[in-house]
Design goal:
single chain; mainly alpha; Receptor-associated Protein; 2 domains; 3-stranded antiparallel β-sheet
C-alpha cells in the first residue's frame, strides 16, 4: 500500500485535507467517497516526491505543536504510524500533510521515525538526533516531550526578544518616514522662497537644501537602487570571510554584542541539555548543539570544544576555552559532570543565561530607546534651525 495526500469536499462544502493509505489512486478516491467526501485532488506521496519540498522550512511554532501532539499520542500507546496519520488528518495547511504523508509512507516501508524525518530534509538535525536517541533507548514518547519543551522554550524566548524590539523599530520607521517627507516635500518649497531672496544662506540651510534637492531630483533612482544594493549586500555576506568578519564585529559591539553572545550560549546549553537528557552521546550532542547556534564564529569555537571532549577533555574545560560562557554556567557544568546529572545542570545553566538575557535586553532597551528619541529630536532640531535661521536673518535685515 502507498500513501496518498488528498483534497476533498464534505457534504457541507468544507474543504478537507489529509493522508490515506490505499492500493491505488482510484482506491483512495473510492474510500473517500465511502466516507462522504468528494475528492478534488489525490496525489501519491512517493519517495521521490519527498525531496521536492525545497528549502521552505518548517514553522517552529507548528513543529512544536506537532511534536507535543505526537508525544501525547505515542505516550498513550498509539503506534508511531497511527499517530502521524492522525496528526496529518488535522493539518489544514498545504505543506504539513505532504510532509507527514511522506513520513508515514517511510514508516510503512519499515524505516525508523528518525530516518523518515531526516529523509524529508526539513527537520533540524538536532530534532532528528533527539528522536533517534529516543528510539534507540525505547523512550520515544519521553524524548518527544523533551523536544516539545525545548521548542516551546525557544519560541517563548524569541517572542520576548521580538516584543522588546517592536517599539524601537516602529519609532525608527516613523522617524525616517517623517524626515524623508520633510526633506522631499517641505524643504524644496521653503528653499524656493529663500533662493528668491538672492542672499547668502547659512551653511546649515545650504546643507539641508542640498539633501532636499538630492531626494527631490534622484529619489526614484535611490528607491530603485535600494533593492539592488540589498541583494548585493546579501550576496557579499554569504562569503565565508565576510560573514565571519561581520559576526566577529557584532560580538565586539557594546551591549548588543554581549546580548548576542548570551542568546547563543543559552540556546547552546539548552539544546545540549535536551540532547543529553534524550540519551544522545556527548560528542554527537555537542556537534548538533553547535550547529544550532546562529553565530558562525561561535559555532566554530564550540565545534573545537567538541573535539577537545572527544579527545578526553572535560566538558567544562572545553566550554571555558571557547570564551563564551559565564563562570556560573561553567560551575554548573562542572557540578553536573561530577554528580552524573549533566543534563539537569545544563538546563539549569541555560535557564540562568536566559534570565540574564532578559535583564540585558531590558538594560539595552533602557539605553536604546532614549538614544533613538534624542536622535530623532536632533534631526528635527536640525531641520527647524536650517529653516528658521534665514528667517531670523531676514527679520534683522528688515529691522
Amino acid at each position: 500500500m502507498a500513501a496518498f495526500s488528498y483534497l476533498a469536499v464534505d457534504a457541507g462544502g468544507r474543504r478537507r485535507r489529509g493522508v490515506m493509505q490505499a492500493e491505488s489512486r482510484r482506491a483512495c478516491r473510492q474510500a473517500l467517497r465511502r466516507e462522504g467526501l468528494f475528492p478534488l485532488e489525490v496525489r501519491e506521496v512517493a519517495r521521490r516526491e519527498r525531496r521536492r519540498f525545497g528549502r521552505r522550512g518548517l514553522s517552529s511554532a507548528t513543529l512544536a505543536v506537532v511534536t507535543r501532539q505526537l508525544a501525547l499520542l505515542v505516550g498513550s500507546g498509539s503506534t508511531v504510524e497511527e499517530s502521524v496519520a492522525a496528526i496529518a488528518a488535522e493539518m489544514d495547511d498545504r505543506l504539513w500533510p505532504r510532509v507527514l504523508g511522506a513520513v508515514r509512507s517511510s514508516l510503512l516501508e519499515g524505516r525508523s521515525l528518525a530516518d523518515a524525518l531526516e529523509e524529508t530534509g526539513l527537520f533540524p538535525p538536532v530534532y532528528v538526533a533527539g528522536v533517534r536517541a529516543g528510539e534507540a533507548g525505547g523512550s520515544l514518547g519521553e524524548s518527544l516531550e523533551i523536544l516539545a519543551d525545548h521548542l516551546e522554550a525557544g519560541i517563548a524566548l524569541k517572542n520576548r526578544l521580538t516584543a522588546a524590539m517592536v517599539y524601537p523599530l516602529i519609532l525608527v520607521l516613523v522617524s525616517v518616514g517623517v524626515v524623508v517627507f520633510l526633506l522631499a516635500r517641505v524643504v524644496p518649497q521653503v528653499a524656493g522662497i529663500f533662493k528668491g531672496l538672492h542672499r547668502e544662506l547659512p551653511p546649515l540651510t545650504r546643507a539641508l537644501m542640498a539633501v532636499g534637492d538630492l531626494l527631490a531630483g534622484h529619489g526614484v533612482a535611490l528607491l530603485l537602487a535600494a533593492p539592488v544594493l540589498a541583494v548585493a549586500a546579501a550576496a557579499l555576506v554569504r562569503l565565508r570571510p565576510v560573514r565571519f568578519f561581520l559576526h566577529s564585529f557584532v560580538l565586539r559591539l557594546p551591549l548588543f554584542g554581549n546580548l548576542v553572545r548570551k542568546v547563543n550560549s543559552g540556546r547552546y546549553l539548552r539544546t545540549l541539555g535536551m540532547l543529553v537528557k534524550s540519551g544522545v552521546p556527548l560528542y554527537e550532542a555537542m556537534s548538533s548543539a553547535a550547529a544550532a547556534v546562529k553565530n558562525p564564529l561561535m559555532t566554530a569555537r564550540l565545534g573545537e570544544a567538541a573535539v577537545r571532549v572527544r579527545e578526553g577533555g572535560s566538558l567544562r574545560d572545553g566550554l571555558a576555552a571557547s570564551g563564551f560562557f559565564t563562570a556560573t554556567s561553567l560551575q554548573l557544568v562542572a557540578a553536573g559532570e561530577r554528580s552524573g546529572e549533566l543534563d539537569r545542570m545544563l538546563l539549569a545553566a541555560a535557564k540562568g543565561v536566559e534570565l540574564d538575557v532578559e535583564r540585558s535586553l531590558a538594560m539595552m532597551m533602557a539605553v536604546v530607546e532614549p538614544a533613538l528619541i534624542l536622535a530623532v529630536g536632533g534631526l528635527v532640531l536640525f531641520i527647524v534651525l536650517a529653516v528658521m535661521l534665514p528667517v531670523f536673518d531676514l527679520n534683522r535685515m528688515i529691522g
